[in-house]
Amino acid sequence: MQPFLFIFTKKMKYYLIPLCVFLFSGCIATKPDLPVRGIYPAVYTYKSSKSFEDVWSNVIDVFAQKGLPIKIIDKSSGLIVSESILMSATNELKTLKLKDSTDYVVIPKKYNASQNKYSALANIPVRGEWNVRIKKTDSCTLINVNIVNIEERYTNPQNGVVQWENVAGFKSTGIFETTIADLIK
Q1: Is the CB of residue 87 less than 8 Å from the CB of residue 127?
Q2: Rounded Cα–Cα distance for residues 9 and 170 (Å)
Q3: Which of 29, 52, 101, 184 is the most buried (most CB within 10 A)?
Q4: Tell me: the pLDDT tens digits for 68-81?
């Protein structure tokens, strides 16, 4: 009986080790994302002395020039929402400067387990929607611009399928909003 137990135990170790590694790998805590620390407005607001009609026309021109497809356009409420579009995102450096100051979005840094550190990346493919709201007041025309529904491309390590997942804690760098502000002055 003892030789059988020895053989059984010897063979089992080849199965038990991978099984234990698999079971306990889910218990290993992954490091959380490093949040964006710089100060970025949630909504960029601009004032213009131009009429509602002129501002509306200028904003439509920006969408056309940038090739942004429009999902919602409602002139009576002053709302323009783009389709979800691809854009590039960046991370902050330790100095809070952006890795690439031409990207539209700054997202939290992710931990790179293979390098055992957080890495600042630029030109990360993300997608999101631009919301523009134009409102006429007694003294001026107000324009509110913000970005919503930012998603990051993610490759599932188990099956290799590319998926999109929501990005929490993203901020707009103000590049797109500045383009609109420059046209409505």
Answers
A1: yes
A2: 52
A3: 184
A4: 999 999 999 999 99
Backbone torsions φ then ψ of 157, nearest 5 degrees: -65, -20
Q: Is the Cβ–Cβ distance between 133 and 110 less than 8 Å?
A: no
Fold of 30-184: Alpha-D-Glucose-1,6-Bisphosphate; Chain A, domain 4 (3.30.530)
Across the chain, what does the average pLDDT equal? 86
Q: What residue ranges do the domains of the chain occupy?
A: 30-184
Q: Give the pairing type, strands 141-155 and 44-48.
A: antiparallel
Query: Which secondary-structure segment (H or E) carries 28?
Result: none
123-134 pLDDT, tens digit each: 999 999 999 999
What residues contact residue 155 under an 8 Å CB cut-off, 6+ apart? 161, 162, 163
Please state the φ and ψ torsions of residue 137, each to the nearest 5 degrees.
-115, 180
Q: Does the pTM of the predicted model rise above 0.90?
A: no
